[in-house]
Amino acid sequence: MLEITEDDVREALHDVIDPELGINVVDLGLVYQISVEDGRRIHVLMTMTTPGCPATNYIQGGAERRLMLIPGAEDVEVRLAWAPPWSPDMMSAEARHQLGMD
Fold this sequence. Notes:
alpha+beta
């Protein structure tokens, strides 16, 4: 059986789109940490653009559902963190370009 890598997880998270901004959570800089235990148990630490983000449950649930689709995934945990606080500086150049910030 192939082991899931952090790159596999990051690639899958590109499919999770913030519904308000239309940009994936990786390029938005919302993903703080990825770890994979035993090649099958995925742990992600991420944040939202604001603590009161109305799309929090949608994005967190979407990330969990997408990660469970990775072949071999047995368990997925997506936790939220608020420190450090998200800022636009965390976005990729592609995300800044999509939002007209470059």
